[in-house]
Structures are given as C-alpha cells and as structure tokens.
Write a structure and sequence with these properties.
Helix content of chain A: 55-70%
Oligomer: heterodimer
Number of helices of chain B: 8
Distance between the termini of chain B: 27 Å
Number of domains of chain A: 1
Largest interface: A-B, 27 and 22 residues
Strand content of chain A: 15-25%
Radius of gyration of chain A: 15 Å
CATH class of chain A: Mainly Alpha
Order of helices and strands of chain B: HHHEHHHHH
Order of helices and strands of chain A: HHHEHHEEH
C-alpha cells in the first residue's frame, strides 16, 4: 500500500503515461506526432500536455517551419527522472506482489 | 487505455523507419555497390594490386558520396512527406561518450570474425585451405554479421521486418556459401618460392567477390522491397498531410 501511494499521480494517468513514455526515448516531438501516436483527441492531448507542463515535466518550444507554426515538446530532466522513478516504483509494486 | 510502455518506447525509436525511405535508400546504395563489385571483378595476375586499389577506391567514393546523398535526400523526403503526415521527431542527442562506446563496440564486433578465423586456423591444415575456402566463409560470415546487427536493431526498435530481413540475408549468405562449395573450390598447389600470387588465390578472390556481390545485390533488393512495401502501407494509412489547427 505504501508503494502504491508513492506513485507519481501526474504520470500515473494512462494518457500522460503514454505521452511521457513517447517523449522519454527522444529529444523532442511535435504535436502531430504525439496526436497520431497517442490516439487522443486534440483537446485531450492539449489538456494532458498542459498538465505535464504545469508539473515541470514537459517543456514546450514554439517555432515556425516555413510559414507553418510548429510546437515541439520535450521531457525536462525533472520529467525524465520522474518517469524513471515511476517505472521503478511500478516494478517494485509487482515484486512485492510476487513475494 | 492499454499501455505497454516498452512497446510505446520501441515504436518511437522506430519512427525513423516508419516510411520505408531509409530502407529504400540503403537498398539502392547496396545495389550500386554490388554493381561496382560485379562489373569490376576481374582480378587478373599482372594488374592485381592496381585493380584491387581501383575497386576499393571506387567503393569508398560510392560509400561516402552515396551516404551523403542518401542522408540529404532522406531529410528532404521526410521534411516534405513524412513530417506533414505523422509529425516530427527529433532523436536524442548523441554524446561524445556514447560515440566512443559505440565505436569501441563496433570495432570489437568487427574483430570477432578475425578472432574466429584465427581460432579456426588452429584446426585447419594450412593457410591455403583458408584462402581457398574464402568464397564460402566470406558470404556466410558477412551474412551472419548483418543478420546479428539487424536482429539487434529489430529487437531494440520492435521491428519484426528487420528480424525477417536479417534472417533472409543470413540464409542468402548460407545458400551462396553452399553453392560455392557445390561447384568445388580452387585446389591448385602453391609454390612457396614464387613471388607472384598463385592462380588459385586469384580464382578464390574472384569467386569471393562474386559471392559478396550477389549477397550485397540480394540484400539491396530485399531492403528495397521491404522499404517499398513499408512506404506503400504508410502512404495508404496517411494519404494526405495533416493540418494542425492553431
């Protein structure tokens, strides 16, 4: 129970877990990539990205590619370490269950 | 929402290969290299050193310019075709330490066949046997090397088609090796006093090059087909560019 309560609730939400996992193995990705890969709606995706940004896990960079606005998202060092910690916590929960 | 974290991570790693362009470019480059090897393989006795240097030089030039051209072409294609459809991904920055570790591992990996050969030579009667059997172990060894690399890459990115390509290339190498064995190996006697290369070595070199040419050619065709199939599937799934509302 103690292990479960220690889980990061920002990442634990399935959609945000998916987004964090997507961003964890790359430098950055744009909105379209996250939209296509996560299967979320635009509105949902925006909300979850904002939530991750508020927590300091995701950093946004708005640029232009030609004349088209382009927004890139990347995990901050805090977000990366939170994701690593989350995976460890989940692992330890299952280890406890096995024992 | 069913999330397999590792699957998601692997899918992101494999994004560079989502459109099939890289495989098509690699396949094209392989076919070009095979062409040079096939048309340039005529290692005759008097011109052997100059011929060898010429072929090696051509291959080096094709590799450098081919890879540069392929990279530029890939950037352009992805910028105009892939990114507007399924989005842009910037890969992780590679640090100097990672480059050093990778270089060390690649060197060690490439040295493996040499160590293997040295170990094998302990059980083989003479160096002549090793030289005359080159047409067999070269394609098999190279096929094995590519297969291992492709299997590792396939595992890292969760790409099943890379595993299939690796196994197919290995099987191709084995089939070429078996074919070379079936038609018989050069068995001329070598005179240790003679300063020129004995004919059986030249025949062995020619046949090894022929084996490698076919292996590279078939690998190129496999990559090209795989890339084309991937591209067609990708285009079917993403027919038009996506417009992001701001």
């Amino acid at each position: 129970m103690k292990n479960l309560s220690g889980l990061d609730r920002v990442i634990h939400e399935p959609a945000r877990l998916m987004l964090t996992a997507l961003l964890s193995s790359i430098e950055s990705a744009d909105f379209l990539f996250l939209l296509k890969e996560s299967g979320l709606t635009k509105g949902n995706l925006s909300v979850h990205l904002s939530r991750l940004e508020e927590a300091g896990y995701v950093q946004t960079e708005k640029t232009f590619r030609g004349k088209i606005p382009h927004t890139e998202y990347r995990l901050t060092p805090k977000g990366k370490s939170a994701f690593v910690q989350y995976r460890k916590s989940i692992g330890s929960i299952f280890n406890v269950k096995k024992a | 929402m069913n999330i397999q974290i590792d699957t998601v991570i692997k899918r992101t790693r494999a994004y560079w290969f989502v459109d099939g362009f890289t495989e098509m470019a690699a396949g094209g480059l392989f076919i070009l290299l095979a062409g040079i090897l096939l048309f340039g393989r005529n290692a005759s006795q008097p011109s052997f050193p100059s011929w060898f240097l010429s072929v090696t030089g051509k291959i080096a030039v094709v590799k450098i310019f081919g890879i540069l051209t392929a990279v530029l072409l890939l950037w352009w294609l992805k910028d105009h075709f892939t990114y507007p459809r399924t989005g842009f991904v910037r890969g992780n920055r590679v640090t100097a330490t990672q480059v050093l570790i990778l270089t060390r591992n690649v060197i060690l990996f490439l040295l493996l066949p040499i160590f293997g050969l040295l170990a094998a030579s302990l059980f083989i009667a003479s160096a002549d046997s090793v030289l005359s059997s080159m047409p067999i172990w070269f394609p098999v060894g190279l096929g094995l090397l590519w297969a291992v690399l492709l299997l590792l890459a396939g595992e890292w990115m969760g790409l099943r088609r890379f595993r299939l390509i690796g196994i197919t290339i290995l099987l191709t190498g084995i089939v070429i090796g078996i074919y070379q064995l079936a038609i018989g190996l050069p068995t001329f006697q070598v005179n240790p006093q003679q300063r020129i290369l004995p004919p059986y070595v030249l025949e062995s070199v020619n046949r090894t090059l022929a084996s490698l040419s076919f292996l590279v050619l078939i690998s190129g065709v496999i990559l090209l087909i795989s890339g084309l199939v991937t591209f067609l599937r990708y285009r079917k799934e993403n027919p038009t560019p996506y417009a992001e509302d701001v």
